Diaminopimelate decarboxylase
Amino acid sequence: MQPFERRDGELFVEDVPLARIAEQFGTPTYVYSRAAFTQHYLAYAQALGDHPGMVCYAIKANSNLAVLNLLARLGAGFDIVSGGELERVLRAGGDPKRVVFSGVGKTREEMTQALNAGIFCFNVESEAELEQLSQVASELGKTANISLRVNPDVDAQTHPYISTGLKENKFGIDIERAPAVYRRAAELPGLSVQGLDCHIGSQLTQLAPFMDALDRLLVLVDELAGEGIHIHHLDLGGGLGVTYRDETPPPVSDYMDAIKARLGDRKLSLMFEPGRSIAANAGVLLTQVLYLKPTEHKNFAIIDGAMNDNIRPSLYQAWQNIVPVREHGGEVKTWDLVGPVCETGDFLGKDRSLALEAGDVLAMLSAGAYGFGMSSNYNSRGRPAEVLVDGDRAHLVRARETIDDQLRGEQVLPDSE
Ligand SMILES: Cc1ncc(COP(=O)(O)O)c(C=O)c1O
Ligand SMILES: N[C@@H](CCCC[NH3+])C(=O)O
């Protein structure tokens, strides 16, 4: 069974019709499939097999507590980029000893929080961060396990906004500088050098850029070993792409086999930080057609889902399929699917061939990653509800935001001022 499939013209998630979820919980609503999250995570865990290492789900892709909890129950580790994400992992029942902390701007407070929680490793992204982490750990009387995130200067051949491994990107430490920084790390108090990390970008659909990066990392591992600095694990980040339309990313097993084959007889454990490839095709965004507005120049379908609910089309010109949850006859026309937000760039899809009527419920597919997590309250719109389907049951795992949720913490000046 596919987690999302059409039966007699009706789109289902597992054994629940999406139309029923729209009726019960309203729209816009994100709907996730437990089976899909499970399948996608297990593809990594099984491909890693008995090679030592960890699959640390990048929680920025989808950080709903129920999602994190189900991955934690499967034994996943987690890649975090903030103290907030660490707190989510802990509250979801995740194991701090399976957490890696990435990100260019960790604060002292976040370092303290992560050291106190006892996370597995910090992926250090600059020399200044290294000095600060040493200081914070020493003051706490603790030792921080570290990897350096290096920037290997390879072209990930993806959208420029989600490419992270080029010299001009803000991420990581220039690979040429890395030996000197490792030497410094080895002499600083409060630090223990464990690994080497890189993440070159997201939505990669070819193996070649991953392999180019890996080759550069292995040269560095050998060079460091020659200096007596031993690297125990390689963290290869995330980045494996998914099919939104007709992309054909390599299967996880090919990706991992290719990596393992490159290691030779080096005793390196492997860490991965997949986000999109676990979450994207485990979720959809349900939205309803409010009005049809055909004009001489364009046909607009105004829908209740907008750029604040899913910003990927507006931000990256991303294309995600949008389909009716219930097929009906009617004339197929070309529509721009636009939201209620006051921005020309507010759309979820353009030039889509659909037979539409007001009231139709549509599903934006492949919306489980970087969907809800990047949503906002722009135009004072409450963020969507989130529902997790498990077999024939649909669970509300985040209530739709109310205006009181939005206003919490705001106040007007007292009358006298
Ligand atoms: C450091 C790091 N690890 C992992 C990921 C997850 O990437 P993806 O969702 O492409 O697998 C990201 C985001 O691109 C990242 O910045
Ligand atoms: N938010 C991006 C991916 C960014 C990855 C973050 N490191 C997307 O939707 O494609």
In short: Residues 60, 162, 202-203, 312, 316, 370, 374 surround lysine (ligand 2) (CB under 6 Å). The chain is about 30% helix and 25% strand.
